[in-house]
Design goal:
Elements: E1 10-11, E2 21-23, H1 47-50, H2 56-63, E3 69-71, H3 74-83, E4 88-90, H4 92-98, E5 103-108, H5 119-131, E6 136-141, H6 145-157, E7 160-166, H7 167-172, H8 174-182, E8 186-190, H9 196-204, H10 212-225, E9 229-231, H11 238-243, H12 245-257, E10 264-268, H13 273-287, E11 294-300, H14 305-308, E12 310-315, E13 324-329, H15 351-358, E14 363-367, H16 369-383, H17 389-408, E15 413-418, H18 426-433, H19 444-451
Parallel strand pairs: 5-15, 6-7, 6-9, 7-8, 10-11, 10-15, 11-14
Antiparallel strand pairs: 1-4, 2-3, 4-5, 12-13
Helix pairs in contact: 3-5, 4-16, 5-6, 6-8, 9-10, 12-13, 16-17
The chain binds pyridoxal-5'-phosphate.
Amino acid sequence: MSDNNKIPYKIYLSEDEIPKQWYNVRADMKNKPAPLLNPATLKPMGFEDLRPVFCDELIKQELDDTTPYIDIPQEVQDFYKMYRPSPLVRAYCLEKALGTPAKIYYKFEGNNTSGSHKLNSAIVQAYYAKKQGLKGVTTETGAGQWGTALSMASAYLGIDCKVYMVKVSYEQKPFRREVMRTYGASVTPSPSMDTEIGRKINAEHPGTTGSLGCAISEAVEVATKTEGYRYVLGSVLNQVLLHQTVIGLEAKAALDKYNITPDVIIGCAGGGSNLGGLISPFMGEKLRGEKDYRIVAVEPASCPSFTRGKFAYDFCDTGMVCPLAKMYTLGSNFIPSANHAGGLRYHGMSPILSQLYHDGYMEAISVEQTSVFEAAQQFARVEGILPAPESSHAIRAAIDEALKCKETGEKKTILFGLTGTGYFDMVAYQKFNDGEMTDYIPSDEELAKSFATLPKVEG
Ligand SMILES: *Cc1c(COP(=O)(O)O)cnc(C)c1O
C-alpha cells in the first residue's frame, strides 16, 4: 500500500475476527522439536508419564506435532472477547521522532489487568484444569505477570490458584502480590519451608532470595503431592506457544486488511512464548516456502540463551524434577547478575523456537539493559504507552532497525510485539532515571561453569 494516510493509527479487528483456532507451527516444521525426557530415566515422555504433572488436554497439545489448527474452546473465546482483539498500532509518532522512512507497527498486548500477553494462555490452562474436574493449579512467578494472569483466570473459572513467587520479587513487588491476592490466589515466597525442595534449598543456601528455577520445582512438587492439583507454566512449553498464536493470527489478519507485508518481525524472548505466538503464522508461510520474512529474537545481554547458549537437553528447573527439554540453554543453575532489572531471566528457551533458530529460520540478537531503558523512555514519550522492560528489548531492536533504514533510505516495514506495560517495574525505571543502572555481560568462564552442569544426554 503506497498511501500511508489510508492506514489508521490503530487497526482493530471486529469481535468476530478473533481467532477461533490456534495455529500449531510444529505441523509445518520438517525438524520437529525434540521430545521432553523423563529426568530420572532420560526416556521420552508420553501422555501417561506427564499426567501427574499436567492437565490431560494440555498434554495432548504439548505432544501434538502434526495438527495444524486446534479449536479454541467457546468459553475461552468468550473470555478473549473481554480484552481482545488487541490493537495493532502504526507507530506514526515514533517514526516521525526517528525521522525514518521505515514503517513501524506494534501489536500491543498490555490492555488487560495482568499487563501482558500471559493472560492468553492462563485462561486456557485454567479452563482445561476446570474441565478435568480439578480443584486447582500451582505455578511459579518471577516478576509477577504470569502469577497475576493465572490468578485472574482462576478467579474467573472458580478454581484455586497457588503461586510460588521468587522471594526477591515477593519482597520488592508487594503490589503485584496484592493484585494476585485480590483475585484470590495464595502467594508464597520461594524458596519456602512448605516443600522438600524449598527446605533443602533454604538449608543449603541460607538467606537465598530465590530463583525462577527453584520456584518451579516447588510448584511442581506441590502439584504432584496435592490431590486434585496440576502444575501450569507460563512460557517455554509448546502448548503455551500454541495459545499465544492468537497474537500472530490477529496481527496477520489486521495487516492483511491493508495488504501490508512486514519485512522484519521482532520480538523479545524470555522463554519464547510471545515471540513464538507472534511469528507462528508468518513462520508457517516461510516454512511452506510461500513467503520470506526476517524474524529476530531479542534477549538481554545478561541472560543470552540464544546468542551464547548451547542447544542441548537441560533441566527446566533447579530441583531437576521437571522433564528435560532440548533447547538453547545457559544451564539450569544460571542466574543472571543481581543488577539485571529487565526481566527475560529464564536460563532456557522454547524448544520450538530453539529448533527453528538452529535450523536457520530466525535470527537472535542481545541488547544491554541501559540501551533497552533508553528505548523504553523514548517510546513512552512519543507513543504514550509505558512499556514493560521485557517489551522494551523489542522496542530497542525495532528502533535500531528503523535507524538503519534512515541511513540507507530503505522503506522497510517493521512489526514488533509490545508485550505489556511497565507500571510494576518502577524500581527498574527509577534506577535508570537516577543514572544508577549498569550493564553486565557474563564472561565466557561464568557460562562455562554453568554449561559444565548440563546433563549428559545423547541427541
Ligand atoms: C513474561 C513476559 C515476557 C517474556 O516471556 P515470553 O515467554 O518470552 O514471551 C515478555 N514480556 C512481558 C510483558 C512478559 O510479562
